Amino acid sequence: MVQAGSSCRDDRWSLLGMTALVTGGTQGIGHAVLEELAGLGAKVHTCSRNEAHLNACLHDWEMKGFQVTGSVCDVMSRAERVKLMDTVSSVFSRVLNILLSHPLLKASGVGSIVCISSIAGVVALNVGSIYGASKGAINQLTKDLACEWAKDNIRSNCVAPWFIRTPLVEAVRL
Q1: Is 126 helix (H, G, I), strand (E, B) or coil?
Q2: 5: region left, alpha or beta (phi > 0 left; psi from -120 to 50 alpha)
Q3: What residues act catalytically?
Q4: Is this structure's pTM higher than 0.90?
Q5: Residue 98: C-alpha distances to residues 120, 125, 134 (Å)
Q6: For residue range 60-75, what is the model confidence (pLDDT) as tens digits?
Q7: Are residues 66 and 92 in contact, defined by beta-carbon separation less than 8 angstroms?
Q8: For the structural domain made of 1-100, what CATH number should be given?
């Protein structure tokens, strides 16, 4: 991981001057994505349902020299998503290439959405049919957005990793 303010591994990978929203950035894959983006110089905003955990992570990122802000939000709640959009819009008021909504992404001129799916959304497995169906829906949404929003210079991509040991996996095994 490259610390903010230090030279990046390669200037081609520098994200200085870029902004990003990583929902669920306090644990699992979201945490790893956030740290990579911040380590490459991006200013990042994240959200979590757990305020104590969010504050602990924000302190850790501050010690690492990362430019990360955060807010409490349950993205399953429409009202909380609207509040998150308002928060992020004010945090990134001058640079609006954030991962929130079509109008903000369009206004940025260089919007990019990266969805996290799973290989379970692509191939049949012997467990987790509902999980696989939900990830399949994310895969399709990503393809649809790529087609619909390309005219507005908004890219949409999806990453579908295989098995990743996270707390969710541990909870499912119990």
Answers
A1: coil
A2: left
A3: 131
A4: no
A5: 28, 34, 24
A6: 999 999 999 999 999 8
A7: no
A8: 3.40.50.720
